[in-house]
Amino acid sequence: MVAGANTNPTLQKLQEEMAPKLASLNDAIYLNSKLFKRVEAIYLDKTKVRRDAESNRLIEYYYQQFLIAGGKLSEEDKEN
Fold first, then answer.
1. Rounded to an integer, what distance in angstroms lies between the CA atom of residue 36 and that of residue 70?
2. Residues 27, 73: contact at Cβ < 8 Å?
3. Cα–Cα distance measured from residue 1 to residue 23, given in angstroms and rounded to the nearest whole number
4. What is the distance between the alpha carbons of residues 73 and 68, in angstroms, rounded to a whole number?
5. What is the pLDDT of residue 4?
6. Which residue would you say has higher pLDDT here, 1 or 34?
7. What is the pTM of this model?
8. In this structure, how many other beta carbons lie within 10 angstroms of the beta carbon of residue 15?
9. Is 70 left (phi over 0), alpha (psi -120 to 50) or beta?
10. CB under 8 Å to 44, separation ≥6 — which residues?
11. Cα 46 to Cα 63: distance, rounded to the nearest angstrom
C-alpha cells in the first residue's frame, strides 16, 4: 500500500473509498466455488503432471490463498 509509506489526505481518502471495493472483489474471487474447484483440481493433479518448480510453487501458493480466504467453506458460511 502506497498510503502506508507515503501518505497525504488525498491518498488516505482514496484508500478509504477503494478498500471496501477491493475487499469485495477479493471475496468474489476467493469465495467463488467454481473457481476454487478448478484451482483444487490443478493442485491435486500436480503429481500427475510434470511442471517446473516455479509452476508448482504458484499452484501451491494460490491453493493456500483460497484455503485461507475460506474456499472450502460451505455456501452458507461464505454468505456470513
1. 10
2. no
3. 14
4. 10
5. 67
6. 34
7. 0.79
8. 15
9. left
10. none
11. 12
3-state secondary structure 36-60: HHHHHHHHHCCCCCCCCHHHHHHHH
Q: If you ran DSSP here, which 8-state letter would residue 71 be given?
A: T
Q: What is the pLDDT of residues 7-49, one digit of tens each?
A: 888 888 999 999 999 999 999 999 999 999 999 999 999 778 8
Q: CB-based burial of residue 32 (10 Å sphere; 0-12 exposed, 13-18 middle, 19+ buried)?
A: middle
Interior angle at CA 30, CA 76 and CA 49, nearest 5: 115
State the pLDDT at residue 67: 96
C-alpha cell at 47: 503429481
pLDDT confidence of residue 3: 64
Q: How far apart are CA 57 and CA 64, in angstroms?
A: 10
